[in-house]
Amino acid sequence: MQIQSLFIQPHADGKTGDISEFTKHFWSFTTQQRIALPTCVAFCISSTSNCVVLQDNHIKTSKYNIFTFLPINLFEQFQRVANGYFLVLLILQLIPEISSLSWFTTIVPLVLVLLVTAVKDATDDYVSSALYSFSSECSFVLHAKGVCSKFSPIRINKWMNVRVGDIIKLENNQFVAADILLLCSSEPYGLCYIETAELDGETNLKVRQALTVTSDLGDITKLMNFDGEVICEPPNNKLDKFTGTLYWRDNKYPLDNDNMLLRGCVLRNTEWCFGMVIFAGLQTKLMQNCGRTTFKRTSIDKLMNTLVLWIFAFLICMGVVLAIGNTVWESWIGRNFQVFLPWDESQRSAVFSGFLAFWSYIIILNTVVPISLYVSVEVLRLGHSYFINWDRKMYHSQTDTAAEARTTTLNEELGQVEFIFSDKTGTLTQNIMVFRKCSIDGRTYGMELSKTACVDFSFNPLCDRRFRFYDSTLVEAIKLEDPAVQEFFRLLALCHTVMPEEKSEGHLVYQAQSPDEGALVNAARNFGFVFRARTPETITLCEMGQAVTYQLLAILDFNNVRKRMSVIVRNPQGQIKLYSKGADTVIFDRLDPSSEDLMYTTSEHLRLRTLALAYKDLDEDDFEIWMKKLLFASTVIENREDQLGALYEEIEQGLKLLGATAIEDKLQEGVAETIACLNLADIKIWVLTGDKLETAMNIGYSCNMLRDDMNEVFVVSGHTLQEAMLRRQICFSMTLCLKKPSSGVRFVVSWQAHALEPLLEHILLDVACLCKTVICCRVTPMQKAQVVELVKRHKRAITLAIGDGANDVSMIKTAHIGVGISGQEGTQAVLASDYSFAQFRYLQRLLLVHGRWSYFRMCNFLCYFFYKNFAFTLVHFWYGFFCGFSAQTVYDQWFITLFNIVYTSLPVLAMGLFDQDVDDRTSLRYPGLYKPGQQNLLFNKRLFFLCTLQGMGTSFLLFFIPYGAFSVMVKEDQQAFAVTIATSLVIVVSVQIGLDKHYWTAVNHLFIWGSVTVYFAILFAMQSNGMFGILPSNFPFVGTARSCLSEQSVWLVILLTTVVCVVPGLAVSFLRVDLFPTLTDKQSRKREGPQGQNLRRVRRTSSRRSAYAFSHQQGYGELITSGKNMRASAVSSAHSPGRTPHSSNWIENMLKRKNEVSCISDESGDRAKNRLPSSSTEPELH
Hints:
One of its GO terms (biological process) is Golgi organization. The protein has 1182 residues and is α+β, with helices and mostly antiparallel strands. Among the domains are: 68-135; 163-279, Calcium-transporting ATPase, cytoplasmic transduction domain A (Distorted Sandwich), CATH 2.70.150; 371-386 and 849-1079, no CATH class; 409-427 and 666-731 and 744-847, HAD superfamily/HAD-like (Rossmann fold), CATH 3.40.50; 433-619 and 652-664, Calcium-transporting ATPase, cytoplasmic domain N (3-Layer(aba) Sandwich), CATH 3.40.1110. 43% of the residues lie in helices and 16% in strands. It is built from 42 helices and 35 strands. The chain is elongated, with a radius of gyration of 38 Å. The two termini are 67 Å apart.
């Protein structure tokens, strides 16, 4: 057996070669020649054996391997300009003529920084790739005879070992391991049902069918003898398209997407199936949509690169000034001292002396950007990540899932987010629909959860014990045999395409095409009308304990244009009835005039996600005439859909209204409140979903992103239109937006591929950014990433993408920050993310608390760090004018080495880890406090300039106050002068950091005062007799500290210097609070509490939308009536002699997809008269 998968390589012009010509030559080859084709086969051949080396299913998600780690990691690290800067300094320090500092003062910290960062990056990459590996997943693999196999025909193997050409067996509820061609299944005619939530976010089941010629290969022996070959398109990211041909038994069979099971899908309601692997590993469509892993850097990192360049330029300027000074001094003054201070042999002239002095001062003044800065930044980011991991308020106890910072490099960026791109299914919603209320014959049923007890359904042995309803009057009406109520639930039990599965007596499981439909059938079940079984021609119910069988005459299926579904049945009494359910606007237009009063009454009861229910009694003769027309229309070739639609429209007239249902969209807890809070923080939220337009809008209303009181809600849609048509609609929407810039405009886009064309993307972005809410539907995974990239590229704003499925991975990787939710769609989004947690509501705390704190702390840390290092370093600059520009240092070498590592490292780390201007509760109560981060107000080029200016001023005072006080001592005892300046410096920066702190803890006190104490301890130790006795050459200044600091005048000078350095900054701070208060200052002054209504869900007015919102495709009506999905026993159990079959081409009709989207106008004003204000945020009926 030879099972091969081939694809045609496209030519340079993008066109595929002549397949027929290739096929003619292909079949002329021998088997071994076919295998050895070098450019077409999707696998390679070992040159040492005849074994076929097929492509495996292993997926590599790591950035590094053992060979590329060192060069790639070093390249990434040296993208930081400072690392290259320190490397240049190291090289300079190796030149003895210009170096006045030892080389180890630079190489040790540089190697330490590179090593620590490399270990962190390697650990993060290894953990991420190890978790992402699917090696633990297993599949049943059928090994072929003669293809390198000495095993039994079927054995369990890991996903990573599955290869192109393997035949694998999948079982119910199992993930599809690769892109496979469906060969056969346990269901009749090779059908199987899959859930594609991982790919497109849709939770409704979809149908796939094997080719007729392979559908009977369920026997292992037949599969072993299968020797088909496939020629198909190259790997691509188009989830809805596949083109290929199966060559088998000298025949060829066309293949399309309906024959394929893609990696990431889940097999549902199908016991087993067999398929042949077409694409594996990174060539699968899922992985083709995942995008590449990129190295993410924060905006502060990029800013620091620019600032380092500025500092380096400033350093060169200082070096030039001092070098010129050295040249002038040597020319005018230094010549007089050559008798006892002769020039070195290498020093030829004063100019050359200045040249050497330039490089010496570059080395001495390099501490304006100390390498300890980057070590401290990494420590802070690691600490902030642990704070996120340890936050118990982001822990979800139901799933035992804690928040996790999967990266340590993006924490401060969480405080600067301007755009959030969110998936819908599983991210905003729970994929759970709940039957809450209904209106029957003008009366509403269903109450609030807190107002009454749950209804007792113990009278019904077939009830679903998980079902909850809170109005016992509806059960009483059922028991009293109210005809309207019984007909209402009879309609719900008959009018649907749900497939029942009774695993044991009374244990029913419904497989529904949409969550809404399943909720309605389950509600009818609990109220005594239990859907038990169906055949192509009958539906069996259990009505209040009695089995009743209805003859199914026709199913008028749902589609996006009709927005309704109907069934025609014959009851046991022989009456023919049409039952219909659909969008209220559609049903109301087809009602009999006798239902007009009831229509108005029901309209007052309608709320979000409603479905109107109606019926009609049919005359036997009229139905027979109509059925003949239906049979004829089902067999025509041209305009079949239009003719069928016209017939459906004909019979669905003169309906009698029964009532309406209200289904609650089961959002995740706190979604609406989180969105409202984030909007107050001026964060724009875009929802990107693969669902259809109506679904997206309904979720928008449920989340209060869309409201009925909005001035404008624009819907821009397209249906394979020309670019000009879409551009016209977008421009029209933009014009209306510009006319009302202050109004609450919302923008809904029904996505098409040409929406991101270069001519349209700018218009789309400009319009979307004018709106407060943007919802994009029918978006593919790759288009999600393209939308994010569009905003990143043109708006230069920090973006965050959040999702829970594999279809969100590309978007998560593209955004500046990716957040994964541990939901119902697997873990691939989590594994590709930077941060993860269990519920969408935790995003509020992640951004407004942890993100804001991280940004605030990092900015304060950087401002203080640059201030203290300029104050520390520029003392050498001022001293140069008094030491003949000889590149002599003020401080001793040990103080220079320990200043940033020991004396001032812990206080600044404590500030960067624990400081906060407000607590977490205040951050959540006042979302506006988040805005400074979006505007880069806490650390920018202006603040950097002010910090450095303050540092320069401090260094000036630190040098000249002691110099003025001890001018004689400077000439006689330079080391005592150095001790005075060093002590003043340590005290000044310690006092300054104490004044800059907003939040004191015991750790802050310990680190600040402990660091001052450590300074004095080390100072006295290094200048003691003991250290001199051990290392006299390294510690020559014996007793200097004792003699200097024992003088009262020295302490007076230190006190004076401290006061003069600190008081100006303190005065400016007090004046700034009064004259230029920040948002934090303003909020701290407010005594009254926040406006509670800002964070409450906005109360909605009445709204009517179809509960068919979650039906994503044409229904299964024709599939059911054909009997193709029924098992033989079920099909033969009942047969109606009068039943007329539908077209034999049912499968083409059933599998045909319609992508029809219409431009929806805002009809809220026209409907207002039929609405009442809602007192509840839940969808309800009054």
